[in-house]
Every structure is written in structure tokens, then in C-alpha cells.
Design goal:
The complex is a heterodimer of chains A (815) and B (178). Chain A is built from 20 helices and 28 strands. With 815 residues, chain A is an alpha+beta fold. The longest helix of chain B has 16 residues, at 138-153. Classes of the chains: A alpha+beta (815), B alpha+beta (178).
């Protein structure tokens, strides 16, 4: 972890006009952002932004013509198919692998073990993060020391899937078994089986103690929490919460195709959220120059964080090197649940010190995170348990967060939409509901007295050091989110069912997220003009089904004054698109979108320069709209197409109009959500029915409102699953008990309540056209809102997810 | 063995192995709008019509498809001339990653042929085995209800309006350098 940045903000730091009693704060974090005039457009001035532009890839998606990674198979006649041999023991050492039978089979092209030349023996982390990765280097492509049932041990490539599967079955692995540990609290014991020796791991991050299976301990504090807890005039409340091991369950499985091209360069077509990180990681791992690795992302069938990692790519690459031919690896659904990644299951303790009249003096959260067999994203996800939800209550003077992240012999965890915030939000929002009940306070007014508003300096976001930074709040639509959410759910007018055994309750929860990782993001874009007035937009930002490419088009069209159809977007291919950190941390619209905006402005400046000469008017008088450049003084105009032809075929001068933009920032403004859930519980059985979820989100200006609503609804569905489904359970050997969708319990259409999404517009001056993020914040809120609704309906508290009829019934029986 | 089947009105013969499912055979023959999201017969992404009945192609033994009439997503509209159901999905922003959508549209077509005016509950029931991770089902359900309106309004468009050709190799993310 790094220290907090001390540099002044890139913009505005010098332009600020301190106007309050806190000049130091305002100098470093000005309230008035030095925003370009064109960034803040009234709704009726927007031509493309905020309009329902058709999602640019929809037509090929609904006709089945879009190409995902597996659809590239037909282009490779000599393609081989990979299968992975995975550990059958929870913990142990591979003592021998007999590959003879597999290698002897017809059609088998390669069989690899941990000791094969093509398999790197270096440690790495699969986490797709910035560099150096804030995750320990603790895993191998193929593992001799296996730490969970599902750890990759060997891999085969064969002419077809059936042969590959048969060959994988024929590989004989012998193990020396070690003791294993599955429960994270037991793993923390001094005498628990130990997953790692200290010197087996390259771990630069804080607080590791592998003798106790601890990969990290982190803590941060502002004020003095212990002193506040000890005060005589406060009530100390303490609650505990538990969350599930949730699978990303993206419908497209992890799929990756590796080959060497005619220039002897290494190429991956792969379903990833992080093409640039994957390129760097592969280059380092395989000791290939970065320039000789090319990562291409076709359409991606969902990621949700599961593909913010180099989960499978090294295996087809190693096999393609060994087999000397292209290799594709497509995980099975069984592997998706047991051997890819999942959300970290956690236990979170919440503690507050609150005065009689409802002043929160301190919030104290502690999380025990089960990172499974390896540590990818372990520390950073745990950090976000505190650093995302707690800043919502930035008016609380004392705050502390601590987490222990421990290893168990269970499947690997990783990044997942919300990234720790769902776990922390359940604990905090469920806890505050209990406190409000205990003190007989209105749950909304109690929160309102403490939550952030425009102008606040949020110090809590900075309490974890490198995990976030102090920030000024410049946009906040929480009040309106609450009012509109209340209206949508009918908060003030809940009819009770006529039957005496049925009880209806409405619960609510609030949430804040970030927009990108503060101070640790980079997006870039370039735009090339064609002579017909159209543009190629090349952007590193990664559309994994979110609609990001369409948002990029809308941003560029808004700047250029052209039609969306005049922009052809290309993302992502590391040979042909600029650098980008990737699709994660709610950064894409904000960071990559701002890079697009800058690139378009750069190109526009050149267009205006050419038009100035063509119209004999100063560029300052010119503006673009509807495909034309016109003079605001004379009304004369030329088309953008005229400029396109003139600029490349002109008599006296010629220029290819190119724009480039690159964006990075210390800012990470929070989007906000107010969640409401309406439930009826049968007190005889504990069975419950969720009638409706309503969620209002302040994402700044929605670049495309329909797509933003889709993000909210999908996130809320994922959040609902976290509240009512078991997730991936593991047996007492740590083996995943879920192998297919039937066993997993992804809520189906009829099992999902209607979701009303509400967009509350604010203007975030640091974002492109006022936008901040949308996709993660509604992932956080259903578990606490539903737990609070059940509490309201029948008076029992379910704090261990999932909420089930059995648990409600058991609690009702206890009373 | 070799099987004979008709795919989107095109008589076709296909070589199939003993372990091949119908989804594999269709994809191998270029009908890659048929998607595979599970290990067989669960997620709904591979739905096609087999002799006018919706089946998950990955759950059908390819040899059992001998002599069958198959209709895949590629038989519906084209990008320039979408089927009304496809059009409704686009207009309602019901598509995110799109991986599950071809199967869902096939199921919606079947539903609306049998029940031109379904309730929301009936739509949800119909697509209950079309798993989607992106949308929360909200906008797909709205799209299918709207598609029902569109089809009722304009019966003449409801017939298959797709291109004669099978799969196309149309827009492909600009990956033209391979």
C-alpha cells in the first residue's frame, strides 16, 4: 500500500477560491471544480448524451451474429482443445503424474505437468490489477502443492473436446495428502494446517502471517474510536453479519484461445475485462517482451469481476507452445463454480457508539474474509468492505475499519461486482436499522442526520491510505433518491394483508460506491477522421456487455456534433487500441469515457481549424452540430464531411485529423443508491414473498438512461441473489457442492421480483458530461433492505445470508 | 454417422460423432448464434426449434436430430430487418452482454405464437429456464410484452422475415486482420 497522495489535484488546485473557514481543506480539495464549459450541459442542450441511443452492438447480438471467443474456432482449422486435470484432494503435494496413457492416445497434441518446459515455474497472481499488483504472487499455472479441490495440476490439448476429456481422464496423479482447513476461524488458529510457508509467496502487502494462514491484515482509523466507545453518554451496539460465497455465474464461461501468429507473436483472443493487464501478466510470466504479446477482446458474455483476472489464459498459451498450434480452452460450468473465482464469503462485525438523541459518535467495522486457497484481490476487496460503505456517513467523527484475510482449502475467490461493498453494506445498513429501532428513531431520518452532502470533505474514504483518498463531495442526490424510492415502494402507505398470519414490511438501505480507484486508473482513446466525415474511435476501455462502447460513441458524438452512426468504435485489442486499466471498479464511463471526450475534443479542435480556413472565420466563432461546422456570427457552414475531404486531399495543406486523449485522476466521486424492498412473511412457516424491489440511483448524468437502468436492474438482481440464495456451498473438505446452474440457484425470471429502477440526475463536475458510475452501487443493497423488511414485518432479524424461510421460522420460534 | 436435417429451411447433411449434441453440430456448421452456457440442458442459451418445439440444442443427442427441421436465431430477422421480437429487445435496452439473448428470443417467439397476449407472469414463466445474469429480467420481460403488442398490431410481420442464407460472417468486432 502506498501513502496518500500529497500532490495537489491535477486541475483546480490552484484555481480554487477558498471561501469557508476550512481553507486548507478547500485548497487541496476544492468544492468548485475547474470544469470545462462544455462539460455541463442542460438536458435540452444535449444532442447525444442522455439520449436513448441504440446500443451499437445490439443488432448483431439479437441476430446471433456477434462473435464471442468460442465463435472464433472456425477460423482455426488446426485448433486443439484444452482440458485441465484438477486436484482431487483439498491439500497436498503432487508426487507423481503419469502421462503415458494420455500421450499415447490418438489426437492428443500435448500433455503438460508442473514440470514441463512450457509451463512457467514462477509464482504469479491471477488478479488483473495495476502494477505492481496489490495481490500476493502465490500461485502457479500448474501446481505441485495443491490447496483446494480444483487446483490445476496438469493440462492436455487434443484435436477435439472428447479426445481432450478422455486424455485428461487418463492422466494419473499421485498425491501426498496434507491436513486441510475449511473454516476461516479455525484457519486462524495457531495449530491449524498451514497453506503456505512464508517463503513460498512473494507478498509485498501488509500484515501477512502465513503461520496463521493470514494473507493480510489491514486497518485504518480517523478520530479515536475506542475513546468514543468508552464514553458514558453513548449506547454501544454490536451486530454480526455473514455473507455467501457468490458465483459470478456469467453465462459465457471463461474462454481463451491462444496462438502464435505469422510474425511469431503471441496472440490471445480471450474473454477478459482486463486486456492490458493480461498482456503484461502473460509477458512477465512467460518471459516474452510485452510488445510481442497481443490480447484481443471480442464480445464478452458477462464478467462481473470474474474476468478481472488472468484466470485461464496461461493454460491455452502453454499448451499452444507445446502443441505448436492454436489451442482453445473453455471452462466447464462445473469448473466455473468450483475452480474459477467467487465473491469472498465474510463475517462482518459492526459496532457503533450512539448518544440518546441519535448522534453517531463512532462506527467500527471488522471483517474476517475467507480468501480461499489463493490471495488474488484478497486485501483490496477486504479494504473496500470499509472504504466504500463507511464514507456514506462522513459526518461521523470517529471511524475505524479492520480486516483479517485468511486462507482456507476452499475454491479461489476474487473480484466481484461491488468488490467488498456488498458485505460491508449489509453489516452497516442492517446494523443502523437495529440501532434506529432500539432508539425508536425513524430509520431514514437517523441516517439523514449523518450521511454526506455536497461540500463535505469525506475523510473516511482516505482512512485506509492507498485504498482511497480524502475527497470533496461535489454531487449528491441522496435526498431525492430516498424520496423517489419511498414513493415507488409506497413507504408511507403499506396495507397489511387481511390474513392474521401474514405480515407485510418494507425495508430500506443506502449505499455509496466509488467511481474508479482514486489515483490508480488510466484510460486512453484516439480518434481518426475519415474523409467522409466519419470517425474511428479506438479506445482501451472494455465493453463486457455493459454498453460501454455505446456510451463512448455518445460522448464522442456529443463533442464532435455528429451522428452516433458516424462513429465506429473499436475496443479492445492491445495492438490497436490505447492503454486502459480495464473494466472494473466502476471506472469505465468515468475514466475511459473522459479519455474519449478528450480525444474527441482534440479532433474537434483540428476540425474547427480546417473549417476556419474554409469559411474564413475565426475558429472561436465556430461550433459543430448535426454534422456541420457553422459560424455563430455569419451562419455560414461547411459539413464535417467537407472538412474530411479537404483535410486529406487539400491543395495547399494536408493533414489526417487525429485526436488523442488520456485520463487519470485522483478523484473517485461516489454514486449513491437508496434501496427499498417490500415483503410479506407468513409467520406460521417463515415463508416470504418479495413483491417488489425499488432502487433509486444517483449516477450523475446518465450517458444512456436505458443502459443505466439495465445496469441497475441487473445489479439489483445479483444483490437479490446474495440475499436469498445459498451461493456455492462447500463440503467439509472444502469441495464445491455446486456443479451446475440447477444446483446453484440463480434466481430465474419468475423467481425475481419486479425491479423498479429510478435514475436521479445530479451533475458530477469531474466526470464526462457530469457522469459518475452506476453499475456497482445497486449490487450492495438488497441483503440489508430485505433483512430490514423482514425485521419490520415479523420482528426477527436474519443477519446470516441467505434469508430463508427456515431461518425466519427458527427465529420466530425462539421468541 | 451422417444425419440429414433441415436448418432454417436449408437441407443439410452433417457428420456427427457418438458424443455430439445438436448445439455442437449446429455451431460446427456455422450457426454460432446457438450459445452454450452450461454443461448441457440447463441455461437455455442454446434454444432452437426442433420440429417446431423449443429445445435446448445442447441437451439433444445430435443423432436424434436426423430428419429434423431446425430453426435457429439466424432464421429470424437480419440486422437491417429485425424480427419484431428482436426489435423490441433493442428498443427496450433488454440486451447487455447478449449471450443468453438468442435463446430467450427463440423462447419468446414460441410463447407469442401460442399466446399472443401473455401476462407478465406468463412471460416470466415462459423464460424461466433462460438464465440471464445481466438484466435482472426486467427489460427482457418488458420487451417481450411489447413484442406481443407489436405482433398483434402487425400480424404480417410475424412470419419469418429472415435472410435465406444461414449464418453470416457480418460484423465481427473489426477483427479483419486474421
Amino acid at each position: 500500500m502506498t501513502d496518500e497522495p500529497t500532490d495537489p489535484k491535477p486541475d483546480g488546485g490552484t484555481a480554487s477560491q477558498p471561501t469557508t473557514e476550512e481553507p486548507d481543506d478547500f485548497e487541496e480539495h476544492p468544492l468548485e471544480w475547474d470544469e470545462p464549459a462544455n462539460n455541463d450541459k442542460a438536458p435540452d442542450e444535449r444532442k447525444s448524451v442522455s439520449q436513448p441511443a441504440e446500443k451499437f452492438d445490439d443488432r448483431k447480438l439479437v441476430t446471433g451474429e456477434a462473435k464471442y471467443t468460442a465463435d472464433y474456432e472456425e477460423r482455426f482449422p488446426d485448433l486443439a482443445h484444452a482440458q485441465v486435470v484438477r486436484s482431487e484432494v483439498s491439500h497436498g503435494r503432487v508426487t507423481a503424474i503419469d502421462t503415458d496413457a494420455a500421450e499415447a492416445m490418438d489426437g492428443v497434441h500435448a500433455v503438460l505437468t508442473p514440470w514441463s518446459d512450457e509451463v512457467p515455474d514462477a509464482k504469479y497472481t491471477s488478479a488483473g490489477q495495476s502494477y505492481p499488483e496489490p495481490s500476493p504472487w502465490d500461485m502457479n499455472v500448474l501446481n505441485e502443492h495443491v490447496r483446494y479441490v480444483g487446483d490445476p495440476v496438469a493440462a492436455v490439448a487434443a484435436e477435439d473436446r472428447e479426445t481432450a476429456a478422455a486424455a485428461a481422464n487418463a492422466v494419473e496423479v499421485e498425491y501426498e495428502e496434507y491436513d486441510h482447513v475449511v473454516d476461516p476461524e479455525e484457519a486462524f488458529d495457531e495449530d491449524a494446517p498451514q497453506l503456505f510457508d512464508q517463503d513460498e509467496v512473494e507478498n509485498e502487502i501488509v500484515g501477512h502471517d502465513y503461520d496463521r494462514n493470514r494473507m493480510s491484515n489491514i486497518e485504518g482509523e480517523i478520530g479515536d474510536v475506542d475513546a468514543a466507545l468508552d464514553r458514558d453518554d453513548v449506547h454501544v451496539h454490536e451486530t454480526e453479519w455473514e455473507t455467501i460465497r457468490q458465483s459470478h455465474a456469467q453465462i459465457e464461461k471463461h474462454t481463451s484461445l491462444a496462438y502464435t501468429d505469422e510474425d511469431d507473436r503471441t496472440v490471445l483472443i480471450t474473454s477478459t475485462q482486463v486486456p492490458n493487464h493480461t498482456r503484461r501478466q502473460l509477458a512477465h510470466l512467460f518471459d516474452i517482451p510485452i510488445r510481442d504479446v497481443r490480447v484481443k477482446k471480442p464480445r464478452v458474455g458477462g464478467g462481473f469481476g470474474g474476468k478481472q483476472a488472468m484466470v485461464v489464459e496461461p493454460i491455452p498459451l502453454a499448451l499452444s507452445l507445446a502443441a505448436d498450434r492454436p489451442v482453445i480452452y473453455e471452462a466447464s460450468r462445473d469448473e466455473e463454480f468450483g475452480a474459477m473465482r467467487s465473491r469472498h464469503p465474510m463475517k462482518v462485525r459492526a459496532r457503533t457508539a450512539v448518544t440518546d438523541d441519535g448522534e453517531i459518535e463512532a462506527i467500527d467495522l471488522y471483517a474476517l474474509s475467507n480468501t480461499g486457497a489463493y490471495g488474488s484481490h484478497g486485501m483490496t476487496v477486504a479494504g473496500n468492505v470499509g472504504s466504500k460503505p463507511m464514507p456514506l456517513y462522513s459526518k461521523v467523527p470517529n471511524a475505524r475499519f479492520e480486516a483479517d484475510i485468511v486462507h482456507t482449502n476452499t475454491p479461489q475467490t476474487g473480484a466481484m461486482r461491488g468488490y467488498g461493498a456488498p458485505q460491508g453494506t449489509l453489516a452497516l445498513e442492517g446494523h443502523l436499522d437495529e440501532v434506529a429501532r432500539d432508539l425508536d428513531l425513524d430509520p431514514i431520518e437517523f441516517r439523514r442526520d449523518h450521511y454526506m452532502e455536497v461540500g463535505d470533505l469525506d475523510e473516511i474514504a482516505g482512512m485506509m491510505g492507498g485504498e482511497g483518498a480524502e475527497r470533496r463531495i461535489r454531487s449528491c442526490g441522496l435526498d431525492e433518491c430516498i424520496e423517489r424510492g419511498k414513493a415507488a415502494i409506497g413507504w408511507d402507505d403499506i396495507d397489511q394483508p387481511e390474513e392474521d398470519h401474514l405480515h407485510r414490511g418494507v425495508g430500506m438501505a443506502l449505499s455509496a460506491q466509488g467511481t474508479g480507484v482514486a489515483g490508480d486508473e488510466l484510460g486512453a482513446a484516439q480518434i481518426m477522421m475519415n474523409e467522409d466525415g466519419s470517425f474511428h474511435l479506438q479506445v482501451g476501455g472494455v465493453d463486457i456487455g455493459t454498453g460501454a462502447d455505446t456510451a463512448f460513441i455518445q460522448i464522442a458524438a456529443e463533442v464532435l456534433g455528429c451522428d452516433e452512426d458516424d462513429i465506429i468504435v473499436k475496443s479492445s485489442d492491445t495492438d490497436n487500441t490505447p492503454f486502459d486499466y480495464g473494466a472494473y471498479a466502476s471506472s469505465t464511463t468515468y475514466i475511459s469515457g473522459m479519455a474519449v471526450k478528450k480525444a474527441a475534443e482534440d479532433a474537434k479542435e483540428r476540425i474547427l481549424d480546417w473549417a476556419s480556413r474554409m469559411l474564413d472565420e475565426p475558429a472561436g466563432n465556430l461550433e459543430t452540430e448535426d454534422g456541420e461546422v457553422y459560424s455563430e456570427e455569419t451562419g455560414d457552414s461547411v459539413t464535417i464531411e467537407d472538412v474530411g475531404y479537404e483535410s486529406v486531399y487539400g491543395h495547399d495543406d494536408r493533414e489526417h485529423i487525429l485526436g488523442k486523449g488520456t485520463h487519470s485522476t485522483e478523484e473517485s466521486p461516489p454514486p449513491f443508491a437508496a434501496q427499498f424492498a417490500d415483503v410479506t412473511v407468513d409467520e406460521r412457516t417463515g415463508e416470504f414473498e418479495v413483491h417488489k424491489l425499488a432502487v433509486a440511483v444517483d449516477c450523475g448524468v446518465a450517458i444512456n438512461p436505458g443502459m443505466a437502468e439495465g445496469q441497475i436492474e441487473g445489479a439489483n438482481h445479483m444483490s437479490y441473489e446474495m440475499a436469498v440464495s445459498e451461493g456455492v456451498t462447500v463440503d467439509d473438505e472444502g469441495r464445491a457442492e455446486v456443479s451446475d446452474f440447477d444446483e446453484y440457484g440463480l434466481p430465474s425470471a419468475s423467481e425475481t421480483p419486479p425491479i423498479e429502477s429510478i435514475l436521479v440526475e445530479t451533475h458530477e463536475p469531474t466526470g464526462p458530461f457530469g457522469a459518475k458510475s452506476v453499475a456497482e452501487v445497486p449490487t450492495n443493497t438488497v441483503p440489508p433492505a430485505l433483512s430490514n423488511a423482514v425485521r419490520e414485518a415479523v420482528g426477527v432479524r436474519i443477519n446470516e445470508m441467505p434469508i430463508t424461510a427456515e431461518k425466519i421460522k427458527a427465529k420466530l420460534d425462539e421468541r | 454417422m451422417e444425419i440429414q436435417l433441415t436448418i432454417n429451411d436449408e437441407p443439410t447433411s452433417a457428420e456427427v460423432g457418438p458424443d455430439d449434441d445438436l448445439a455442437t453440430v449446429l455451431r460446427r456448421n456455422g450457426y454460432t448464434g446457438v450459445k452454450c452456457g452450461c454443461d448441457g440442458g440447463v441455461c437455455g442459451a442454446s434454444k432452437v426449434f426442433v420440429n417446431d418445439e423449443v429445445r435446448m440444442a445442447c441437451g439433444v443427442d445430435a443423432r436424434d436430430a436426423d430428419d429434423a427441421e431446425i430453426e435457429t436465431i439466424e432464421s429470424l430477422g437480419s440486422q437491417d430487418d429485425l424480427h419484431p421480437i428482436q426489435e423490441a429487445f433493442v428498443d427496450h435496452f433488454a440486451v447487455q452482454c447478449g449471450f443468453c439473448i438468442p435463446g430467450m428470443i427463440i423462447e419468446a417467439k414460441s410463447l407469442l405464437a401460442d399466446n399472443p397476449d401473455p401476462s407478465e407472469a406468463e412471460v416470466r414463466e415462459a423464460i424461466d429456464d433462460n438464465l440471464c445474469r445481466c438484466t435482472g429480467y426486467q427489460k427482457p420481460v418488458e420487451a417481450i410484452l411489447d413484442a406481443a403488442d407489436r405482433l398483434r398490431d402487425d400480424r404480417s410481420v410475424a412470419a419469418d422475415g429472415g435472410p435465406e442464407a444461414g449464418p453470416t460472417n457480418g460484423a465481427d468486432d473489426g477483427d479483419t486482420d486474421d
